[in-house]
Recover the amino acids of this structure.
């Protein structure tokens, strides 16, 4: 069963480009992880809405293996400055029950 993790991040005004750049710089690195299927960085269009970083995995075990690995540590070694992100957000984990698409 496919496993999806959403990380909701409230990025403060003026820090949006730096936040997005962090993902552009590492584009393709997560693709090398066993069990990884897809990643999307979703930019909010509404006022006060968070960014959503969505990753899709073959299983919850594959996600946890990535979180425990060196690539995850490298990706999160240099966090955004404290003033760049607001309160709230966080991780949400889901099992896909129904999926459709082209």
């Amino acid at each position: 069963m496919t496993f999806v993790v959403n990380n909701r991040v409230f990025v403060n005004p003026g820090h949006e480009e730096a936040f997005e750049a962090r993902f552009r710089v590492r584009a393709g690195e997560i693709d090398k992880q066993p069990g990884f299927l897809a990643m999307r960085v979703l930019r909010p269009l509404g006022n006060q809405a968070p960014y959503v970083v969505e990753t899709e995995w073959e299983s919850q075990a594959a996600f946890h293996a990535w979180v425990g690995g060196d690539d995850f540590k490298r990706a999160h070694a240099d966090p955004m400055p404290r003033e760049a992100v607001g309160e709230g957000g966080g991780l949400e984990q889901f099992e896909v029950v129904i999926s459709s698409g082209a």
The beta strands are 3-9, 36-42, 51-57, 90-95. The first strand starts at residue 3 and ends at 9. The chain has one domain: 3-45+59-95. The mean pLDDT is 92.
